Amino acid sequence: YPSEFLMQKITEDNQIPVHLHVSVSLQYVAGLKGRALVEFFHSNIAEVENEELRHLMWSSVLFYKTPNVEVMACVLLSTKAIYFLLDDSFIHTDEHQSDFWNKENSDCENSSFHLSCCFVLKLNDLQSVNVGLFDQYFRITGHSADHILTCLTRDSYNTHTFIQQLMAVLSLLARTPSPEPVDKDFYSEFGSKNTGKMENYELIHSSRVKFIYPNEEEIGDLAFLVAEKMDGLTNLPSLNILLYVLAFQVNHFEGSAQNTSSLQPKTLILTSSDLFLFDEDYISYPLPEFAKEPPKRDKYQLADGRRIRDLDRVLMGYQTYPQALTFVFDDVQNQDLMQNLTLDHFGE
């Protein structure tokens, strides 16, 4: 152990997304290749001597207790646990995290020694995995609020690969089998389902971990919500969502020294007539079992919306993936001016 194929695969996956900035400590990890990467895992991260590193992925991470702070992480999946090597800038972003993270490394800040926080979720504590719409993200749920986090991969391939690797590793766990199901009669089987709402598609793994996928109703609910935001167009017989993608909105700050830009996470939704940007809550829904009250904000909050007919041009950059797109809209004060003129002039 490990095989040459696995080492080559982990080395290929060990690349930080080019548009995201990380701390020096994570840049060091991203520079490791092959056997050096495996040895780094065993000497610095692994908690058990005989555990094997199976998969590596770079992803943005959201914690249930700090839903507004998205942090870059190196996600390492082994045969015993999931490790999240976090960007050390995360520790200083929120003052309310002192009970969540131990700040014992403050004396190391000014030295050449770089220390990263590592969040560990043991596979035995894993209860469920919720996969987001179109595999753009997934939420991992443990036994408490401290053990709920969302990986914002923004990439269906990365999500699919991680889920497959996780299922393979969970198959190795020796868990006590679940008790035999009690035979249900006809009335108890069908009489309790009076909610009128279809449950999400659940796959219960042999390790008793639930993998929950969204059903068609989630798209229907999203289409209804989008229709509500479209002024005067709510009577459309059919509203089709053509595209749902997690993206970043680029905000430019013009400074004296150099122009800088920040990336604001947004959910982009394209319909046949409009383009929308939403602020989406990726961590709070569906509600965990221990939640005593609903989240403070809705799952989708409209940030911006424009009509496709007002779109003047789309500018594309020449850089490699991820591609930057600039949408230029006509800024017309009275949006229905042209439509009214046409009706008056040509039609009775």
From TrEMBL:
The gene is Nisch_1. Residues 241-347 form the Nischarin C-terminal PH domain. It comes from the Eukaryota. Residues 114-178 form the PLEKHM2 PH domain. This is NISCH protein. GO terms for cellular component: endosome membrane. Pfam families: PH_NISCH_C (PF25625), PH_PLEKHM2 (PF23142). It is found in: Cytoplasm. GO terms for biological process: Golgi organization; lysosome localization; regulation of protein localization. GO terms for molecular function: kinesin binding. Keywords: Cytoplasm. It comes from Poecile atricapillus (Black-capped chickadee). Its main location: cytoplasm. PANTHER family: PLECKSTRIN HOMOLOGY DOMAIN-CONTAINING FAMILY M MEMBER 2 (PTHR46556).
